[in-house]
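Let's study a protein:

___
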Amino acid sequence: MTLNIHSFNDTYELNNGVKIPVIGLGTWQTPDGEVAKNTVKDALDLGYRLIDTAAAYGNEESIGQGIKQSGVNRHDLFVTTKLWNDHHGYQATKAAIDESLTKLDLDYLDLYLIHWPNPAPVRDHWAELNAESWQAMEEAVQAGKIRAIGVSNFRRKHLDELLKTAKIRPAVNQIYLNPSDMEEDVTSYNKELGILSEAYSPLGRGGLFANETVVSVAQHYDKSPAQVLLRWSLQHGFVPLPKSVHRDRLESNLQVFDFTISDADMAKLDGLHGAAKLANDPDHTDF
C-alpha cells in the first residue's frame, strides 16, 4: 500500500472536514518544565505542526509555554490532549476540558480524546460514563472549545457502545500501532467507520530498532530503523506520533518523505507481529 504523501506539510481530512498533519510529535514521558517547553519549541522550529499531549502526561502547561514562545501562529498548529481516567462522566469531563485549556493557555483544542475506554475504577459502568463524557465533549465542540473529538485505545466493543448514543462520530482512534502489533481488527474497523488511526509508540518503544528485518529494510533504503518504521506508518495511512527530546532525532524523524517502501518490504514489516511489545488490553489494565 502506498499513499500519496510527499511532505510533512501534507494533511489528512478527518470525517468532520478538519485537516490533521500526517505526522506529529508525541510527548508521553517528556518531562514537565524546561525539557517539554524546549522540545516543543525545537519541534515547531523544525516544521512539526501536530503536538500531542494528555492530562495524564503532566506536561500540558510546559507544552503550552513552548507553543507560545515558538512564535508559530496558533491557527497553523494542531494540538491534541486527552481526558484521563479519573475524570470520566459528564461534569468531570467538562471540568477536565477547561482545565486542559487553561494549562495549555489555548482558546481551543484541535482534538480531544478519551484516553482509555475502560478505567479500572469504573469498570462496572464504563459505557455509561463514556457516553456522559462524550456528551460533554460534543457540547464543547458546539461551544467552539474543540474542533474534533475522538478516542484512544478503543476496540470494537468500546466503539460500538459509544456509537449507541454519540451524535458526533469519533474522528480519530489513537492506538498502540507499529509492525509488532498492527491491531488489524481495530484499524480495519476504524477505516470502516471513517475514523482515522493514529499511531502512538510507532517505533515500538525502541524494541524494533535492532530487529533483523527492520535493520535490513533500513539498510536497503539507506535510512535508519526509526525512519523506516515511520514510513511504514505513513504508507498504511496512519498518523505516527514519534517521541524524542533530542533535536537531531526530531529532525531525523521528519526525513521520511523522500523514499517509498516497496510492497514486498512492507509485507516483510507487516509480518513482525510480536517482535516487540504488544498493545495493552484496555479491559485488563490496572489503571
